[in-house]
Amino acid sequence: MDTPLYDIAILGSGPVSNTLAQLLAQIANTPSRILLLRDERPENLDATALDPRALALNQGSRVLLESIDAWPDQAADILTVHVSQQGRLGRTLISHADMQTPRLGSVVTYSALHERLNQSLQITGVTVAGGPPALITGQDDRGITIRQGQQTYHARLAVLADGQAQAPLTEDEKEAAARTRDYGQHAILATVHASNPLPGRAWERFTRQGPLALLPHPQRHDLYALVWCQPQAQAEALQALDDSHFGQALESAFGLRLGTLQPYGPRHAVPLRLTMRQRTLRGRIVTIGNAAQTLHPVAGQGLNLGLRDAAQLSLALRDWLRANTPCGTPDLHDWLMQRKADRALTIGITDLLARSFSTGLSPAEHAGGLALLGLDLMPTLRQPLVRHLLQGLRI
Ligand SMILES: Cc1cc2nc3c(=O)[nH]c(=O)nc-3n(C[C@H](O)[C@H](O)[C@H](O)COP(=O)(O)OP(=O)(O)OC[C@H]3O[C@@H](n4cnc5c(N)ncnc54)[C@H](O)[C@@H]3O)c2cc1C
């Protein structure tokens, strides 16, 4: 292999790859030696611009994105979260005041975040190449070879942030015992109009079929972003309803806390799966973000976790990047250990929440309701759990 021209090549076109590129540019002696390889086929650009996701980002993610001047102009604050269980007594109200933070989180749209990240990327000096999906074709003791279309690139380290954790596992990865679970659920994503909005409040309701979240929408105070998880067949039946009947079905699952609810614009359904790759470092290849793990959307943790992957990786690479050693590899052992703990805890909480309320088994369901009641009664238990969901493991 030729002497690598780039210190780090990042493969990915989503928020995690873009954030990492900008964090590395802030610490690198020569930001142009950071290469960001993006999938810029028209279908991927269209899918990103039209992505229906609204993302609840915690305060830690917001501070991180603000540090690279990538926080979108339109964001809705979450000041309280109301958690309840359909048909049970359990409920809890989590307030930003209890947690002593200015807000519990903020909601932004995936497309607005993407656009803002692209703007801030422009002045960083990072080398950006667009084309078909980039592919790692080899690695040796000098570096990594990557192909994108007709172009070949060499880098000393590659970071896979291509969001492909849902892709079939290779034989190598199967050996590394990736943890996977098909929830058998689809998330229905929609924007809904509420006749009696309650600004600043997000709602998480656990139903027998799956969790249902309504998040304050960044574009208007009377709109909410709906994430309604349902077994596949029920999700398909709901998708087949007209807007008026869909609104009625939603009201009967959620109640009338926000008045009447009506869909506003198109609805989408996405399948839900847990994938946690055990091996996120293979030689000179590091895997982060959704490429390392995809989570159930309950409690909105996927991107928050991916941004922590990126933030801690940039810190772990700082000395290596500044020393500019031509052939050495960075020591990422401590980073791996930090990420292992944070990933396991966040994935564990999310997976438990996703399953324990919708197993259809009464004792498990009841335990879920009791756990919620317990959280309401026991601040000592609630504080660390909520703080983890707010910030994740601190460095
Ligand atoms: C319904 C739903 C709701 C969610 N809600 C929340 C929430 O409220 N809060 C939260 O924190 N998270 C949430 N998430 C999770 C969040 O969307 C993901 O964790 C986040 O998008 C991951 O970002 P990423 O950059 O790692 O990957 P992605 O967003 O998947 O982006 C990867 C990009 O790289 C491109 N790509 C693929 N292959 C290549 C290649 N070879 N070379 C270059 N580019 C490539 C892909 O096409 C894609 O554009 C939700 C997810 C879902 C499904």
TrEMBL record:
Keywords: FAD, Flavoprotein, Monooxygenase, Oxidoreductase
Pfam families listed in its UniProt record: FAD_binding_3
InterPro entries the UniProt entry points to: FAD-bd, FAD/NAD-bd_sf, Ubi_Hdrlase_CS, UbiH/COQ6, UbiH/COQ6_monooxygenase
Signal peptide: none
Any one Gene Ontology molecular-function term assigned to this protein's record: FAD binding
Family, similarity comment: Belongs to the UbiH/COQ6 family.
Record's protein name: Monooxygenase
Species the sequence originates in: Corticimicrobacter populi
